[in-house]
């Protein structure tokens, strides 16, 4: 969930950047899982930059469009989860943490590369500025949101690798709730969006691209 103020002319750029960023994110999950011994995602066709296998009709397309068209200042969306058989991964729970965190780290790398280009090219035309701005802001938001250690978000795999057994059991129960766990997360995260999470978000964006307006 990230705060975005976009005009109608920026919607197309936003959707393209979202699809590309999402595809790279999910592909890296599949790549890491395959590299660590589980070929489930690869056999399902998820080891690809093609956005189509990664799209969830509701959370990838419908929900972000509804939020944008309704004038909501917040954008939320998700790709189709990459299926991983964690019992087949090398290094056990550490392998699961690697597969989980490679996605958010990939988004941070995308934001850093875009910021590096933005900082060296300087002030650009409106379209180019929007492309780099949206790429940086969106990917920083994806990095932070997906790093939250709450099942089924990616950050939960990192916490799971180091958590004591009682906490692991609690996380497993939360993940089994499915869509309800996302609803619970929404009510937990929403107050943070206007507080510490927003401050961290702005700090990371300005660290990467000091002259960027967010």
Strands, helices and their partners?
Blueprint: E1 2-3, H1 11-35, H2 40-43, H3 57-69, E2 74-75, H4 92-121, H5 126-146, H6 155-162, H7 165-176, H8 179-193, H9 196-208
Antiparallel strand pairs: 1-2
Structural overview:
The protein starts with a strand and ends in a 6-residue tail after the last helix. The protein has a two-stranded antiparallel ribbon. The chain has 214 residues and is mainly alpha-helical. Helices cover 66% and strands 2% of the residues. The radius of gyration is 17 Å and the shape is globular. The chain has nine helices and two strands.
Question: How do you describe this structure in short?
Answer:
This protein is mainly alpha-helical.
Give the biggest beta sheet: 2 strands, antiparallel
Q: Helix/strand/pairing class, anyone? A: mainly alpha
Along the chain, the helix and strand elements come as EHHHEHHHHHH
Task: Tell me the β content.
Answer: under 5%
Number of strands: 2
Mass-distribution shape = globular
Mean pLDDT: 85
Characteristics of this structure?
214 residues; mainly alpha; two-stranded antiparallel sheet
């Amino acid at each position: 969930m990230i705060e975005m103020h976009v005009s109608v002319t920026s919607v197309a750029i936003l959707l393209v950047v979202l699809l590309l960023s999402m595809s790279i994110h999910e592909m890296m999950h599949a790549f890491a899982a395959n590299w660590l011994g589980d070929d489930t995602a690869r056999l399902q066709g998820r080891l690809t930059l093609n956005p189509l296998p990664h799209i969830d009709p509701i959370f990838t397309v419908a929900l972000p469009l509804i939020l944008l068209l309704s004038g909501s200042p917040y954008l939320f969306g998700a790709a189709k989860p990459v299926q991983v058989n964690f019992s087949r991964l090398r290094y056990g729970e550490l392998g699961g943490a690697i597969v989980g965190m490679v996605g958010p780290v990939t988004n941070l790398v995308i934001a850093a590369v875009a910021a590096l280009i933005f900082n060296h090219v300087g002030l650009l035309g409106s379209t180019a500025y929007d492309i780099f701005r949206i790429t940086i802001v969106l990917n920083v938001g994806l990095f932070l949101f997906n790093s939250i250690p709450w099942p089924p978000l990616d950050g939960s795999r990192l916490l799971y690798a180091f958590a004591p057994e009682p906490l692991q059991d609690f996380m497993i129960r939360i993940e089994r709730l499915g869509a309800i766990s996302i609803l619970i997360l929404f009510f937990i995260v929403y107050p943070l969006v206007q507080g510490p999470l927003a401050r961290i978000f702005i700090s990371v964006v300005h660290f990467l691209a000091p002259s960027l307006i967010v």
